[in-house]
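Private note to self, pasted from the team thread so I don't lose it. Backbone tokens:
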């Protein structure tokens, strides 16, 4: 022991004194953040909107571990697999933090031999990505997933998922969506519902749902009251790659390049395909003729007549399903909000059919400023083969679902509230129990206990003899709407003085009627944004 201690002392002497060493910086890890009570109040409001929509559509809720066996996640995310957080060996099991909620859901279905479920799951996921905090991109973030698993008639569950996505994005009231449209020179957009001409950056009588846009990289932005969603089908992409001459081995990596068209020009994407991924230039040009097309059901019908694409079985099946999907979307009243986008590729390997994505652009703070993009706020698609990867006998369970990117939505809501300097309630307290004179602590404690037992959300100040003015000021600062005031005269008369903080009106309420009166006055839902 003495020898080992001597060695350690020698090593310590070599390290030198503690002075001048780098001090420990107290901060959250890169790509993560803390949330204040004000921010949490906003988050809970957003979650309430999302969960109520999921429940309205009949979903059950499940939960899964925050980490999975590494082999469970391996090979499911294509080029994004490098973003998975691997954990150190913990007693013989190689583990990774979950990258999304979809692969754990598929593992859950296979492990429990489930073939039919409609579920939602709200939980944190982890990605070793380059964070962009102001745009709502983190390394630790929440996903809100809704999925329908089971064998059903084509496109009915898919249409419901798109309906849910529209309902949630509309209910959150985060402002107008700015939709990117690649247009030919001379095309002009149509004014969206409920918008003035001044709010739109292009005008005309044509609608994005019945036009085909091709060729030019000019981007026109126009504003829709409820936004627009982009939709595509993985089978159409694979069929398109096949007829364009893409080798089978390059399908997924070229698909990943195409998915960058929402952030980069066609020339940049083409250079990546040819220069970095070894695709022949003429093949890339043929792909460009297709992926620069956007439209609605008319584009689907046009591609069904395409002499090359219509000869590919996969693409023909995908186009047929998309045509049926648009029929259902019309019945749901949301067809005008859905854009068929051939450049939408969604980089994840497990998609097998229809895929969709909603992109939100933040409204500019000042007139004339460019809108700030926060990227995708919702996405999803069909993945019929994922469960079969985990089943010993390879039995497939068809699945389709969506994921709401709530962190980016939180960023928008928080920025808006800060800009408006809007006050946010961080508690749901209905009433403060106060006293008008000294030596009434026991009476306050008795009354607040009665209110708590009756389900009333109530507070009191933690002082024996607080001043009435201080108690009223606390209510104003905290947003508490009512004050139940106890005084010597009120105790004699068997009443409680109930004061409205906003109007400062006071009324005597019999003690036995106080609970019902508080419930009646605070029955309106509390709004925080």
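Design output:
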């Amino acid at each position: 022991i003495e020898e080992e201690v001597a060695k350690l002392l020698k090593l310590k002497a070599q390290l030198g004194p503690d002075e001048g060493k780098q001090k420990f910086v107290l901060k959250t890890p890169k790509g993560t953040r803390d949330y204040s009570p004000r921010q949490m109040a906003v988050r809970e409001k957003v979650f309430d909107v999302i969960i109520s929509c999921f429940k309205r559509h009949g979903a059950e809720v499940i939960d899964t571990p925050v980490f999975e066996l590494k082999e469970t996640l391996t090979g499911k995310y294509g080029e994004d697999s490098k973003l998975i957080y691997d954990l150190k060996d913990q007693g013989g099991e190689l583990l990774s933090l979950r990258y999304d909620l979809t692969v754990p859901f598929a593992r859950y279905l296979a492990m429990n031999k489930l073939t039919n479920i409609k579920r939602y799951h709200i939980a944190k996921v982890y990605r070793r990505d380059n964070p962009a905090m102001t745009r709502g991109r983190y390394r630790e973030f929440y996903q809100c997933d809704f999925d329908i698993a089971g064998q059903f008639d084509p496109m009915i569950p898919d249409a419901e998922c798109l309906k849910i996505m529209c309902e949630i994005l509309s209910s959150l009231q985060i402002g107008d969506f700015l939709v990117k449209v690649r247009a030919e020179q001379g095309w002009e957009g149509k004014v969206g519902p409920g918008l003035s001409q001044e709010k739109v950056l292009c005008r005309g009588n044509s609608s994005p749902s019945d036009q085909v846009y091709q060729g030019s990289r000019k981007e026109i932005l126009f504003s829709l009251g409820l936004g627009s969603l982009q939709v595509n089908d993985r089978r159409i992409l694979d069929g398109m790659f096949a007829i364009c001459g893409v080798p089978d081995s390059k399908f997924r990596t070229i698909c990943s390049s195409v998915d960058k068209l929402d952030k980069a020009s066609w020339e940049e994407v083409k250079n990546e395909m040819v220069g970095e991924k070894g695709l022949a230039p003429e093949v890339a040009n043929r792909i460009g003729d297709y992926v620069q097309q956007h439209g609605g059901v008319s584009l689907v019908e046009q591609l069904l007549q395409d002499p090359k694409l219509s000869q590919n079985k996969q693409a023909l099946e995908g186009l047929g399903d998309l045509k049926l999907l648009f029929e259902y979307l019309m019945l749901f009243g949301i067809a005008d909000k859905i854009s068929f986008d051939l450049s939408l590729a969604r980089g994840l390997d497990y998609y097998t059919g229809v895929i969709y994505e909603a992109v939100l652009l933040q409204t500019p703070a000042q007139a004339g400023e460019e809108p700030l993009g926060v990227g995708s706020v919702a996405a999803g698609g069909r993945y019929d083969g994922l469960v079969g990867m985990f089943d010993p006998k390879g039995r497939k369970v068809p699945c389709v679902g969506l994921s709401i990117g709530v962190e980016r939505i939180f960023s928008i809501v928080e920025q808006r509230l800060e800009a408006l300097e809007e006050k946010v309630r961080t508690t749901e307290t209905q009433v403060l129990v106060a006293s008008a004179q000294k030596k009434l602590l026991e009476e306050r404690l008795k009354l607040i206990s009665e209110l708590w037992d009756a389900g009333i959300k109530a507070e009191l100040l933690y002082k024996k003899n607080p001043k009435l003015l201080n108690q009223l000021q606390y209510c104003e600062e905290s947003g508490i709407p009512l004050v139940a005031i106890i005084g010597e005269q009120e105790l004699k008369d068997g009443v409680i003085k109930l004061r409205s903080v906003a109007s400062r009106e006071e009324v005597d309420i019999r003690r036995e009627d106080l609970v019902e009166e508080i419930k009646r006055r605070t029955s309106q839902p509390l709004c925080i944004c």
